[in-house]
Amino acid sequence: MKTIEQTTDEILNLAATHFKFPRAQLHPGDDFYKKLGIDSLQALELLTRLENHFGVELPDYEVQGVSDFHTLAERIQARL
Amino acid sequence: MLDLAKYDSLGAALREALKHWPEELCLIEADRDHERSRITYRQFGEVAEPLAAALEESGFAAGDRAAIMMTNQPKWLISAYAVFFAGGVLVPLDYKLSASEHLQLLAHSQSHILVVEYPLWRAISQAPAFREHKLRTVIVTEAPPNADLAGGLRWEEFHGARAPEFRPRKRMDAACIVYSSGTGGHPRGCVLTHENYLQQCSAVTPVFPFRPGASYLSIIPTNHAIDFMGGFLMPFTGGGTVVHLRTLRPEFIRDAFTKYKITYMAVVPLILKNLQRGLREKFAALPPAKRKMLGALIAVNRALTRRQPRPGLSRVLLKDIHNAFGGGLEALLVGGAFTEPATIEFFHDIGIPIYNGYGCTEACTAITLNDLRPFRPETVGKPVRGMEIRIVQPDADGIGEVSVRSKTVMSQYLDDPEMTAETIVNGWLMTGDLGKVDVTGHLQLFGRKKNMIVTAEGKNIYPEDIENNFEGIAAKEFCVFAANYIWPQHTMTGEQLVLVLHPEPGNTIDGALLKELSRRNSQLLNYKRVSGYVAWDQDFPRNAAMKIRRVILAGQISKQVNRSAMVSL
Q1: Closest to B202 (Cα-Cα) out of B361, B366, B410
Q2: pLDDT band per the 50, 70, 90 thresholds, residue B489
Q3: Where in chain B is CATH 3.40.50.12780?
Q4: Residue B493 burial by Cβ neighbours in a 10 Å radius (0-12, 13-18, 19+)
Q5: pTM (whole model) above 0.90
Q6: Which residues on A lie below 8 Å from B526 (Cβ)?
Q7: What is the CATH classification number for the domain harbouring A59?
Q8: For FRET with B482, which of B9, B65, B337, B396 sits at 20 to 30 Å CA-CA?
């Protein structure tokens, strides 16, 4: 079982790769919309990548209102 | 479609629809690529009427208000129908708002009942203001078996014992209270009557003739006026089918076109641009010879469809593209925000008719619609049936404020006679948008007169509403504006918010303050954030009640600094 720290770290790595963003500049408390400069559809793209990586399904309505990496990690962690 | 002139209320018209097409397919619910259910109009009634009965048995009276807070799904429409059946007033709330904003609007609308999806209810029940809510009954959908419902009841078990009593309403009675924006102390709750909706539905349906077999893919939130009309009233009164996907992910939307042979879909510009990007990438990946051939076919299609769409011809010429859209797509309706003409042109050139329009919640959705005869992507089309448009105080170029008069104009803003009187003047709705009407009757927009922006996702943002979020910062005073309000550009693009900051005397805008501004800004939903700030060293003009005189302040700023003075946050 992964720890929440490991899950968060993997999310940050994937986000950095997917949006070609320097990994060192991403932190768990960051708002991913603002930090990555993405719109709601690009955020959904990221969710799809995360689902494939973690092997979980995250319905859109479950992550409604989530905008920071840490909360996203908590939602994923709950389904691992 | 049904002759809506015969009915006095949405409840009566929808009830007739269920009787008129009992065995036609009404709703399809899919969860991504797995289909969950499909129901006929008869089955819709069989689920909705016990819910209406339970509402009535709970003490819900005619004229009482029931809020709905759900993503797009069948239970939204079933619950809305039950509310209308029981004579209620529906309050569709934007599920994308925060829990505290939801509580604020529930209080403002004085809703008696709330129908809500479990994840949203969980967030609301954990919000600090939760204990103050005055809801009588909360009905929660899809809650996990052992979930704490914080006093709510399960939607799936909320059935009445007896047959419900249909409660008639009059045409001029309120049907819905729809918040066009505003949660920061200025909620704009548009009170829309049954007359408003029935008129709008009759005016727009001839352009999108729903009939049994025609299907609509519901993507725009149903609380938004566009989906409420296109994904509920229009298909129901025409016997069509509404498809809910429970996701907005582009890959599943694309698959749904072919899987469900979609006839119509409404989108906001953001989604349209995403579809455009996907198609462009596919075109670019073609081998050079095929790409050249495609370019030639698109040129032929463009030349042959200038005067009017020719879907049959376009489908033959550009078969592969049309097959990817399911082969039965008759129209994509784009609205909610300004769409760049180049995007509309891209789809028109490949033979996918894009009907761009212009409207607002205050006018019950559409004011104008482009009928594509001929194709005029730089305009937002001509007035829909029954809509009068007048340009107020036009300048030398004919550009002035767009005002409209129609039976679709709302009755009032809820509990706000002052704002109602400013907005509806002698029966004319002042839209706050700048435009001109050309000789052929097409409306072209040139920016906004009012201090407001609309995002590509179709969200109206009034700067005053986000000022609360900056309260208490270490500055003498501050104010948020739409940048185009201070520096008009006569364009509908590049809209952003700007914070005008007046530091304490002797202070400068230093690193600590900037850090705090950035922190506060990031607490706002992404589409509500300010793009930058302007430093201002003079006292803000204020009235006797110490309210900022925004018009004067904006004028002072525009005279002394230009847009380049904005520093990004």
Answers
A1: B366
A2: confident
A3: 268-448
A4: exposed
A5: no
A6: 31, 33-34, 39-40, 67
A7: 1.10.1200.10
A8: B396
